[in-house]
Design brief:
Elements: H1 3-10, H2 14-30, H3 35-74
Length: about 80
């Protein structure tokens, strides 16, 4: 994957990346694409999915940290 594409995806918030991923899936499912174009869409989709997963993981960690801090304060 090109660095520009990677930087483009890394700059996206979760909602933007998830919407882009959904658009990619729709394009792959709904069209007879040339192999190279399908591979490029698949590669971008993989990068988007990985980015979304990382953002969700970071959000989950933050919630756990906040929950733990709250529980420790109440104890």
């Amino acid at each position: 994957m090109s660095d520009n594409l990677s930087q483009d995806i890394q700059a996206m918030d979760f909602e933007t990346a998830f919407n882009a991923l959904q658009e990619n899936v729709a394009q792959l499912e709904g069209a007879d694409l040339p192999l190279e174009q399908a591979l490029a869409l698949f590669e971008r989709g993989q990068a988007l999915a990985k980015h979304c997963a990382a953002l969700l993981e970071a959000a989950e960690l933050k919630v756990r940290t906040l929950t733990t801090d709250t529980e420790e304060t109440e104890a």
